[in-house]
Amino acid sequence: MSTVETPQEARPRRGRASAFAKALGRFLFAAVTTYFGLLAVTFFIGRVVPIDPVLAILGDRAPNHVVERVRQEMGFNLPLYQQFFIYIKGILSGDFGNSVLTTNPVMVDIRRAFPATVELATLGTLIGAFVGVPLGVLAAVRRGSIADQVVRVIGLIGYSVPIFWLALISLVIFYAQLRWVAFPGRIDIVFEYTFTPITGFYLLDSAWQGQWDVFYDVFRHIILPASLLGYFSLAYISRMTRSFMLNELSQEYIVAARAKGLSETRVIWGHALRNAAVPLVTVIALSYAGLLEGSVLTETVFSWPGIGLYITNSLQNADMNAVLGGTIVIGTVFIGINLLSDLLYRTLDPRTRNR
Question: What is its main location (predicted)?
Answer without folding.
Answer: membrane
